[in-house]
Design brief:
single chain, 65% helix, 2 strands, two-stranded antiparallel sheet, mainly alpha
């Protein structure tokens, strides 16, 4: 039995509201934790995503923003001696972003803070994996 277009529209609206609500709660959580470290939410997001050396483009993709916005954030982190730009090992045109020892220490502290009272902490690890899989499926399906 097919659902009616009206029922489908209601279901999609409700799901969109839930996804947006979760995204807002996560963003607020990041903002609050970042502020305790004197960082902006964008700076905290960049540090969170810096799991190793990467290009500006890779970081922009991980942050889900434009490379020009990422450049602004990285410039600020570089001025704080948290990130350095190094020559890319295989691409002369690109730079590798690398955390400094201070950046690595701050990232570790940030990750600890982000794990406390996370909006997702009410879900078990298996539930988080299921949610992840369902969201990924919804995003990638035609």
């Amino acid at each position: 039995m097919r659902t009616s277009p009206e029922s489908q529209a209601i279901a999609e609206r409700q799901l969109c509201g839930l996804v947006n609500g979760l995204a807002q709660r996560i963003a607020e959580h990041v903002r609050e934790r970042a502020a305790t470290l004197s960082l902006t939410a964008s700076q905290a997001t960049a540090l969170r995503e810096m799991s190793g050396p990467m290009t500006m483009r890779e970081l922009a993709e991980r942050m889900s923003c434009e490379p020009s916005n990422t450049t602004f954030v990285v410039d600020k982190l570089e001025k704080q001696s948290l990130i350095e730009r190094h020559p890319h090992p295989t691409d002369r045109r690109a730079k590798h972003l690398v955390l400094t020892p201070e950046g690595t220490a701050l990232r570790t502290r940030l990750l600890e803070l982000l794990s406390v009272d996370s909006p997702l902490s009410g879900l078990t690890q298996p539930e988080q994996r299921v949610l992840h899989g369902l969201l990924e499926q919804a995003i990638t399906s035609p």
